[in-house]
Amino acid sequence: MQSALEGIKVLDLSRLLPGPFCSMLMADLGADVIKVEDPAVGDYIRWWPPKIGSSSGFHVVLNRNKRSLTLNLKAREGRDIFLRLARESDVVLEGFRPGVMKKLGLDYHSLGEVNPRLVFCAISGYGQEGERALKAGHDINYLALNGLLSHSGRAGKPTVPGTQIADLGGGALLAAFSILAALLARERTGQGQCIDISMTDGAMAWNCLRWGQFIADGRVPAPGDDFLNHGYACYNVYETGDGRFMALGALEPQFWKAFCKAMDRPQWDRPDYFDPGPHQAVLEGEIGAAFMEKTQAEWVEILSAHDCCCEPVLTLAEAMDDRGLQARQMVVSLIHESWGSYRQLGIAPKFSATPGEIRSHAPDLGEHTAAILRDLGFDQSEVDRLKAEGIV
Predict the structure, then answer these.
(1) Active-site position among 12, 28, 107, 167
(2) CA distances from 335 to 25, 66, 325, 328, 359 (A)
(3) What is the pTM of this model?
(4) 45-92 tens-digit pLDDT
(5) CA–CA separation, 2 vs 282, rounded Å?
(6) What is the CATH number of domain 9-205+338-388?
């Protein structure tokens, strides 16, 4: 059975997190992703500790199912090889600062001349144009400028999220969706196009609920001010007697009623549980005191008999061992000939007819260079010469 993206070839010039996560999603669904890397150092994330064998754990997760080609794009011959690859590819993905690809002579206009059907996607912090386009930045900066960070966390101070919302949600996921949309449009028009992904723009869209609230009531969102942001007792995190935590999300009346029953606190089941006001702090204190009476494991056992939207806060190690997540194949055990056994992150979307598959481990730097060049018509002597000259 064919994979959903079988036959789609992606040239991935990106590094670190946003681009590689985007191309991993495509590779998992069958695309042939060629990771184009500098011959000297490759993708920087390869070398970040901690390591599994000789490779960074980050690299192992982000770059599975891909092939690695080392190529010096600053050299004329390296650029020519890339153009030959682009001529027969469907997608070019890059994450450089705006202008870098044009300096290399590999911008969308140049590549479109050799392949008008090419979909070119550029992921950057602030977009290809605008006053911030050339500024350096990271996830925390993008979230700061688009307003999302300002209402994250508890009252008094914004909190840095535990995962990279702009990199992954505003960049990688939006890029993957947009690339597939452009490929679908190409089937109708016969033409490729350029996609400009700004991680700041992309994550700004994640303000959708607070945006709607703000344009309706004019109240500027802030940490701890809302029913989904530590502002209400029915939707919060509570410490247990053994220093662990429970996550309560009993927003709807039926779930709140079930929670009050499970906790044997009928006095909490009042209509104002979902109204703003100082009583929320009082109720939060009472719930907090109740949760401190037992351990997390004891609460899990008690609450398991009640459908009240209350779950234990698991560590990542515990999540890896969770039977439900394992049954959903979100934790996959693999064996590498050098590293040995390890657990890989599973594939989230479940396709009934064209499921994704982990076909190969993350590649060594330049592992597939010779094979890719031979497919282009280079013989072994030419490959050896290119290596000796630092082109590959």
Answers:
(1) 167
(2) 21, 17, 20, 20, 12
(3) 0.96
(4) 999 999 998 999 999 999 999 999 999 999 999 999 999 999 999 999
(5) 58
(6) 3.40.50.10540
